[in-house]
Amino acid sequence: MKVLGIYGSERRGGNSDQLLDRALAGAEASGAIISKIYARDLMISGCRSCGGCDKTGVCVVKDDMSDVYKMFEEADVIILASPIYFYAMPGQVKCLVDRAQAMWSRRHLLKTPEQRKTYDSGKGYLIAVGATRGQNLFEGVQLTARYFYDALDMSYEGGIFFRKLDKKDAVNEHPEMLDEAFELGKKAAGAK
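The structure assignment produced for this chain is given below.
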């Protein structure tokens, strides 16, 4: 079982980073092999909507996404962690998500519409944190995650969502949240 963690925050060691660290620790404790992507460290552009992947399922843009695509393909489970900025995920991780367009094109080239009703590449989870308590705080990011995982031929399995975490280490005042992340990782490692 290979579990990939995608760190979506620009803030090193912040709340979503710490929660993903705990989730990956839970997956590793369950025997999973862990790998990590830090979106903030990648030199990538957003999708150019150039159509270059339409006939091949391969992105024509040459940047750090070339390595990320390989990691996507090798993962049985992907856990994406992100803070919420203006009711959405931050720009750098959204660039990564948008570049999954090539994987979406590949899926449509390789699978019939009937086959696309099932997911053969694994499962995806989301960890999201926000500073406000808005009722719809996580709706946009959940839709984005659902279709990101769809492009990767993975089912979206939901996740964990925490409000009122603003300062960098606020999650440390809530050990129950860190425990919940650890349990999510254990669940994800047994998911396939």
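Interim note for the steering committee: The chain has a mean pLDDT of 96. Strands lie at 2-7, 33-38, 77-83, 123-129, 155-162.
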